[in-house]
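Milestone M4 deliverable, item 7.
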Amino acid sequence: MGVCPMLHHSSAPAPPNGHFMNQALLDKIESEQFRKNAADFGVGDTVRVHTKVVEGDKERVQIFAGIVIGRRGHGLNEMFTVRRISYGEGVERVFPLHSPRVEKVEVERKGAVRRAKLTYLRKRLGKGATLVKEKEGRSTAEAAPSAPAAPAAPAAPVVPATPAAPTAPKS
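Output delivered:
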């Protein structure tokens, strides 16, 4: 039985860096599309996302504030999801990080979380749905003294006052 020649792959060597020529071209095009002022935020942070909204011939900025519950993708395809409670209903929006429609991302509060995705917030009701522990910043560490203060001098022993002896009335 012979081996079908169509099943054999070409023996052309792959480029040394693993990328083909068109990949370098794609990287160059993508690098031009990246956001110049990269937002520094993570999962668990409370953010305000300023988005450009076009209504007819007018353009305005709309703000969506909430908690970042996840980030995904990398490079130009990076997205982040923001969740907030609006009129008792949970609302989530997914924003492309490098989109020209996203004007800026303001970080209101840094959150200290130990998960990459905060999907458990979807099950929570009331204030628990927005509860994420605040990250302790360096400002609190700088305010605390670095060396313990010297112990205070020992206080003088307290001696109870004795009542004055009654004096004889003057006659």
